[in-house]
Amino acid sequence: MPPDLAEKVAALGRVIDPPRTNALYAPLHDGEPYPGATVIRDIKYGPDDLHALDIFKAAQPGSEARPVLIHVHGGGFVRGDKHTPGTPFTDNIPLWAARNGMVGVNVNYRLAPKATWPAGTEDMAAILRWTKANIAAHGGDPAKVFLLGWSAGAHHVVSYLAFPQFHAPDASPVAGAILLSGAPYDTTVFDMKPIEAYFGTDASKYPGQSPTPGLLKSKIPLLVAFAGLDPPGIEQQSIDLVEALCKAQHCPRKVFLKTHSHMSIGAAIGTRDVELTNQILEFVKAEN
């Protein structure tokens, strides 16, 4: 991260502040129409209004099928969108994928309080079923699918990996998962009060909603990224997950971005700050 930008991100502190963070990063991204990329928006993958996804692919992709990167946005389980018109967010993530040898997919999913646990996990299964049936028509390889979850989106990703009862034979297999400043990974120790709209108020159910036990049994490769300016509770979730996975002989690739925040970790994707994206490319190449 350039020093002047690092100072501005540090000045915001350990807060989740999309408007002010996005204002710092928006000038570093291309606007629409995106050079060198084709975007197809609002493809339905299920019956709900939020069951929609966008596809990003190279304008001239060639004949060989490409790995697929599916981005799952954050928003505290109650908000967020795959695209905010008039801004580069969060188009920047699948756009970066399309410009780096992949097919990028941006997804929406059902939100609380209308949709509660395990709706997000169910939606991940529906997305992967759609992917297996349809992504080849867009130049993607349905056998080489990577999930990238950011914040609450990372919870939905790991919940899908951790609870195999939601898997289906007609869904694309997951080649690897990238987790950006995710939470909660362990619902038994995380402060659940702010996210009760999705998980409910009955604390006796939280252990059964925790992805950590299932992740310790999973063999799917993980990249766990977190930021030095994450809120402390969110940062600790990543630290604890990495430690638990290593104890289970399933160490993930760990990426600690000291100068980044909860929002800048994703907003920087597609800029000249390649501290994270170089690691993602290496991870995809290694697991491809």
Structure description:
The chain is α/β, with parallel strands linked by helices and 288 residues long. The protein has a domain at 31-145 and 155-176 and 206-224: Rossmann fold (3-Layer(aba) Sandwich). It is 34% helix and 22% strand. It is built from 11 helices and 8 strands. It has helices at 3-12, 18-25, 92-98, 119-134, 152-162, 196-199, 206-209, 212-217, 232-247, 264-267, 277-287; strands at 37-44, 52-58, 66-72, 103-107, 140-150, 174-180, 222-229, 253-261. Strands 1-2-4-3-5-6-7-8 form an 8-stranded mixed sheet, sandwiched between helices. Helix 4 crosses helix 5 (152-162). The radius of gyration is 18 Å and the shape is globular. The model has no long low-confidence stretch (mean pLDDT 97).
Helix content: 25-40%
Give the CA-CA distance, first to last residue.
Answer: 28 Å
Q: Evaluate the radius of gyration.
A: 18 Å
Order of helices and strands: HHEEEHEHEHEHHHEHEHH
Low-confidence stretches are none
Give me the secondary-structure category.
alpha/beta
Strand portion: 15-25%
Number of strands: 8
Report the average pLDDT across residues: 97
What's the arrangement of strands in the largest beta sheet?
1-2-4-3-5-6-7-8
Q: What top-tier CATH class of one domain fits best?
A: Alpha Beta
Total count of helical runs of at least 4 residues: 11
Query: Could you say which overall geometry the principal axes of the C-alpha atoms support?
Result: globular
